[in-house]
Amino acid sequence: METELKLHVPPAQLERMRQHPLLADRATDGALEQHLVDTYYDTAAHDLWQHGLTLRVREADGGWIQTVKTAAATSPGLQERGEWECALPDATPQPALLARQVEPAALAQLLERAADGLQPVLRNLTHRTTWRLRWSDGDEVECALDAGRIEAGGANIEIAELELEIKHGSSAHLFELALALHADIPLRMSNDSKAARGFAMLQATQPQPVKAQPVELERHATLEDTYRLIGLNCLRQMEANVPGVLKQDVESLHQMRVGLRRLRALVDMFDELAPAPAEVSEGLDWLAGALGATRDWDVLADSTLARVHGIDPAALRQAARARADKLHKELLQTLQSARFTQVLLSVNGWLHARGWRPETGLPKHSPLAARASRACRPLLRKAEKRLGRRIADFDGSEPHQRHRIRIAAKKARYGAEFFRDLLPAKEVKRYVARLSDLQDRLGLLNDFAVAGQLLPELQKGNGELARQAAYARGYLVAASEADNGALAASLKTVTKLRLSR
Known about the structure:
The chain is of the alpha+beta class. It has helices spanning 14-18, 21-26, 47-50, 96-99, 105-114, 172-182, 194-203, 223-240, 242-246, 250-269, 278-302, 314-335, 338-352, 372-392, 399-418, 425-454, 464-482, 484-495, and strands at residues 2-8, 32-42, 53-60, 63-70, 78-81, 83-88, 119-134, 140-152, 155-168, 188-190. Strands 1, 2, 3, 4, 5, 6, 7, 8, 9 and 10 form a ten-stranded antiparallel sheet that branches.
């Protein structure tokens, strides 16, 4: 199993990275310089790639190495893939030499079936500088700096990246090293392999929004193990949507925010058991603010104004859409900023290395060391009590109170979804459904309230647009007030819900 962290390096900083003292100080030997020519083979229909498999023949130092990898990135930040390789007498691929080793068996059979139809589909030409790094605790990391290009379909793109691969030990040092290098040279995290970038060139595919995936928990797992697993699940959804956000896709931004909200809710739930360091909690708060402003204008343009009747709000929607598009462009700078990389590396490192643990390990009687099936109950009960208090304090009109109830309902629902596998299925289904209904109702009212804050920016002047904006504000205020009766009934239903008995 290959476990590595990939980072984009600014091309102008490649030589500076090559000479970085941190790499020289940790290196067990001098740097190894190689010129690599990697040719990827597949069928005309890209059958291997479509099933998560790559076949590569590498020419280096006068010899040839054949490598088969599974194209599965199972952990945020880190790419964890099956890898098998063997020497070849020449540049001709011989998949039969590796087919018996490949797992699962279905992929091995696919490799054998594809053998007769293989053809070169893309090529990487890379100058690689490699260091073997060692820490005092015995952990070892291979650091490879690649510069070159990927050629596919008559086009090419530049390669300028750093690969940090675990050779011995845990992943903690990968993120420590990445953060230390990032402090000197601005890096960006990358979840795409060279093969993925090459096939994207061939297929001209667009990034797709990635929704939250169910968290699969084992009944005998500890609360700490489930916390880490759930956190990585949330982080995976965030990171998977970055390519779509960079393409200014509205739904990708929405799903990235969902992943971020889930992660922040989880960190808040475990605050007393595993308090997050400032760089993690403050970083997540900063990112939430950066994404939220753009999403607010998306919702106004694409959803809220469609609920306004009595006028044709087409001009209003167009103006709101223009504001949203402008913010989407500005958001690109945020996602390419040094702070965004620092946040992702910090959160990844904290979760992967279990950064909440004291040096002596978890105390024997810590709730984190207990079985999650029991230890999750107090956390869920805490979320229920918070929701109950906020509903009890609601006077029926204040938007900020409604918003606080919505946040509490969301956190209670996320908690139930996180631990779904450890709870009675029917109870969870009913609980989540009731909370989702309340969350949707409160979410719509929150959209109306946010619209009331944004529309004045479109009211400047005395033209038709300003008149439409004023009308829309009044309409949405009236619509909010008209919903008070239905909201009261929904709140009453939720106060009776109990999951954590």
